[in-house]
Design brief:
Pathway: Purine metabolism; 3',5'-cyclic di-GMP biosynthesis
Strand order of the largest sheet: 2-3-1-4-5
Distance between the termini: 28 Å
Helix content: 55-70%
Catalytic activity: 2 GTP = 3',3'-c-di-GMP + 2 diphosphate
Cofactor: Mg(2+)
InterPro entries: Diguanylate_Cyclase (IPR050469), GGDEF_dom (IPR000160), MASE5 (IPR033444), Nucleotide_cyclase (IPR029787), Rev_trsase/Diguanyl_cyclase (IPR043128)
Protein name: diguanylate cyclase
Shape: elongated
Number of helices: 12
Number of strands: 5
Length: 382
């Protein structure tokens, strides 16, 4: 189970490139709703401008043409439809990026159409102002994704150039200079915002990696990479709660390395650490599956949690552990029971109403019994 925890931490720690892609999608998805709201506000402004003028005691602008009015109503419906789709459906989740490219491009084309209609009304002088606001609002919303920003603004850039040529007959130096200045400001602003966005994602990425590392350190024994005592106790408590609900059996095996103090005295503490590490790997390979939790409980003591297994199944696991450790053939010439490293094991089965402390005490009494009866054996708790 500690292996599963590590794998989960690794799966949560995406690469920076993948995390950046995920953050782009999240940001665009969140910001497009705001952008659509701004687009709707712009449509209302164009549609109701004559009323705004009247309310401000300014001479009324000429009435918008019937074609433009109808176009604005249709476009308003399209933009509202996009908002409903984004807010209340999950259709776009699997193909989010291409769907958003279509939406942003269609937004740009819609405004290209609206602005082209304004050519034939007396609102032509507003084209550059409206285009500038549209470009800046698109920049604010879509700067995390260059592709979406490009699709949303390219049609508007085209109408700006067409506007200049429509009024002057040619792209004069004055218009060209003004558009170049705006283009430079737009691109430098995009790069600046993008840089801050990437920096924020990098910081988030580093924080997630650090949090996962600290979580793993709090659960893992540093020498053997097994579950530490704190994590094991927590896992045991959860397993008991689950067993209480499902009425399934639950067993633990408490393990002690025979005469390990003599082993350290004979071979040294570095050899002792190496021995514990090899035993830890052996235990992990011998248990049934990842649901069986192997932990280091302190010093040369190990403990194994066996969910959904009664004491008889636990006995079979204990026997496999004994055989596997013997196969390691770790020399121990100071042992009184074997020329190789051996184990004493205490097995206890949880019963309904038993708490974790009592269960471990039962396993400890069984382990004591195994030591009293000659070590290198396993005993069941009474």
């Amino acid at each position: 189970m500690i292996e599963l925890t590590e794998k989960n931490a690794q799966s949560r720690t995406l690469t920076l490139h993948n995390r950046l892609k995920v953050a782009e999608i999240r940001a665009v998805k969140m910001n497009v709703s705001w952008l659509l709201s701004v687009q709707i506000a712009f449509v209302l402004f164009v549609f109701c401008r004559e009323y705004f003028y009247v309310s401000h005691n300014i001479p009324a602008a000429p009435v918008i043409s019937t074609v433009l009015k109808h176009a604005l109503i249709v476009i308003m419906a399209i933009l509202c439809g996009y908002m409903i789709v984004l807010r209340f459906t999950r259709v776009l989740e699997k193909q989010f990026k291409p769907a958003m490219l279509v939406i942003t491009l269609s937004i740009g084309v819609i405004w290209c159409f609206i602005l082209s209609l304004l050519f034939y009304s007396e609102f032509g002088h507003l084209i550059f102002a409206i285009s500038t606001l549209l470009m800046l609002s698109s920049l604010i919303a879509l700067y995390p994704s260059s592709h979406h920003l490009f699709f949303a603004t390219t049609p508007i850039w085209a109408i700006i150039v067409a506007h200049a040529m429509f009024f002057s007959g040619t792209l004069s130096l004055v218009y060209l200079a003004g558009y170049l200045v705006f283009a430079v400001l737009f691109e430098t602003g995009r790069r600046l915002l993008r840089r801050w966005f990437v920096l924020a994602v990098m910081r988030e990425h580093q924080n997630v990696r650090l949090a996962n590392k600290l979580t793993l350190m709090s659960q893992q024994d540093p020498l053997t990479a097994l579950a530490n005592r704190r994590y094991f106790d927590h896992a045991l408590q959860r397993a008991i709660e689950a067993a209480t609900k499902t009425a399934q059996p639950l067993s633990i095996i408490l393990i002690d390395v025979d005469y390990f103090k003599k082993y350290n005295d004979r071979y040294g503490h570095q050899a002792g650490d190496s021995c514990l590490t090899q035993l830890a790997k052996c235990f992990q390979q011998t248990v049934r599956n990842a649901q069986d939790l192997v932990g280091r409980y302190g010093g040369e003591e190990f403990i194994i949690l066996l969910p959904d297994q009664d004491k008889h199944a636990a006995e079979k696991v204990a026997e496999r552990l004994k055989i596997s450790v013997f196969a390691l053939a770790l020399p121990h010439d100071q042992s009184d029971v074997s020329p190789y490293v051996s184990l004493s094991q205490g097995i206890a089965q949880w019963r309904n109403g038993m708490d974790a402390k009592t269960l471990i005490e039962n396993a400890d009494r069984a382990l004591y019994l195994a030591k009293q009866q000659g070590r290198n054996t396993a005993r069941l708790a009474p």
